């Protein structure tokens, strides 16, 4: 016999066991399924067993157990209301976030590739892509024709794609910061 059972009042155990059929019937009326009712009764008995010292012998144990069962049922229902059933993983996949280190490594590679560009191409791609200037504004800053800026940006994009060996969007991962830079760079 365990220490917990030695401390347990024999009358408590007898009343608890005598209440099980009524508890199960009440649990079934709440859940509508025998397996869920059995689980609810088990949870109730475990809680009652753990809190046996708080029960006053001579008072209505059935009412005490029914209160525990009812509270446990509503606690489970509230918890279930906050949970999302996602057996196929569809919802979870939509919440997935790419690890931050991928973007950091991509950015390091991009900086190295950017350093390999001729100065005029690097200047043009940074003004258009990273700084968000229009072609006209970049041409004014570089003191050259708009067509020259467009040509430099185009050559810089082609060269960066070659250096980074980018075949398509699936070759790199963009976090929110990189996505905003990328969308500005390729939207012009």
Automatic annotation (TrEMBL):
Domain spans labelled RNA polymerase sigma-70 region: 20-82
Naturally occurring in which organism (per UniProt): Ahrensia marina
The keyword Transcription regulation is assigned to this record: yes
NCBIfam families hit by this protein: PRK12516.1, PRK12547.1, sigma70-ECF
Record has Transcription regulation as a keyword: yes
Domain RNA polymerase sigma factor 70 region 4 type per the UniProt entry, residue ranges: 109-160
Protein name: RNA polymerase sigma factor
Keyword entries, A-Z: DNA-binding, Sigma factor, Transcription, Transcription regulation
GO terms classed as biological process: DNA-templated transcription initiation
Pfam families for this protein: Sigma70_r2, Sigma70_r4_2
Family membership: Belongs to the sigma-70 factor family. ECF subfamily.
Any GO molecular function: sigma factor activity
């Amino acid at each position: 016999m365990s220490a917990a059972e030695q401390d347990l009042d024999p009358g408590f155990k007898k009343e608890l066991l005598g209440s099980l059929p009524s508890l199960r019937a009440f649990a079934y009326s709440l859940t509508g399924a025998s397996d869920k009712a059995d689980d609810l009764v088990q949870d109730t008995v475990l809680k009652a067993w753990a809190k046996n010292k708080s029960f006053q012998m001579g008072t209505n144990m059935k009412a005490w157990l029914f209160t525990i069962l009812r509270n446990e049922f509503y606690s489970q229902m509230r918890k279930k209301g906050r949970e999302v059933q996602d057996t196929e993983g569809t919802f979870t996949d939509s919440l997935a976030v790419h690890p931050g280190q991928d973007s950091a490594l991509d950015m390091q590679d991009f900086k190295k590739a950017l350093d390999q560009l001729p100065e005029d191409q690097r200047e043009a791609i940074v003004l258009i892509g990273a700084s968000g200037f229009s072609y006209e504004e970049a041409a004014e800053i570089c003191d050259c024709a708009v067509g020259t800026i467009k040509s430099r940006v185009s050559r810089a994009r082609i060269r960066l794609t070659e250096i980074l060996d980018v075949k398509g969007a699936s070759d790199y991962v963009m976090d929110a910061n990189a996505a905003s830079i990328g969308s500005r760079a390729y939207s012009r």
